[in-house]
Write the structure tokens for this entry.
Amino acid sequence: MEYKIEDVTGTFQGQILKNLGNNEYVIKIDSQEHQLKVLSMNPRGIEFILDQKYHKVKYLENTTAQMNLVVDGIPMKINTNSKFAEIVYKNTGGADSGDAQTSLRSQIPGKVVSVNVEDGTNVKKGDVVCVLESMKMQVSVKSHKDGVVKKIKVKGGMSVAKNDVLAEIE
């Protein structure tokens, strides 16, 4: 999986190479192998030893595209998929095809948490139209172009499937 730390120019690849048992692993970060021992893990954070050095991570917020956390006392934002914005743009009507120019579509199945615009609202490309929740993560669905919201097709609490039309933007 690819990760990017905010304000750091590059991305890095991380993967588990081997489970040694007893919460110990051999992991690979980019091209280097490391020894990892997980001491404790819960919904609030994780404590671990990486290459014989103790670390503590506290989770502050987690969305599909980004994690806000504190690592050894230093606040960080990690983009969990550096191409997430491009994927969302493509899957919400940003591609040049048929009604994709007006239809803002759901890129994931989920529940509508909030609708941030009304019929007739002027929006700019990138404005949040609604927020979806899927797998306990919230995703902001943004306008794929400048225009006027012709019709909102969803309401708060409603469930949507992937590719459902959320709004018509002209």
User: Anything to note?
Assistant: Confidence is low (pLDDT under 50) at residues 95-100.
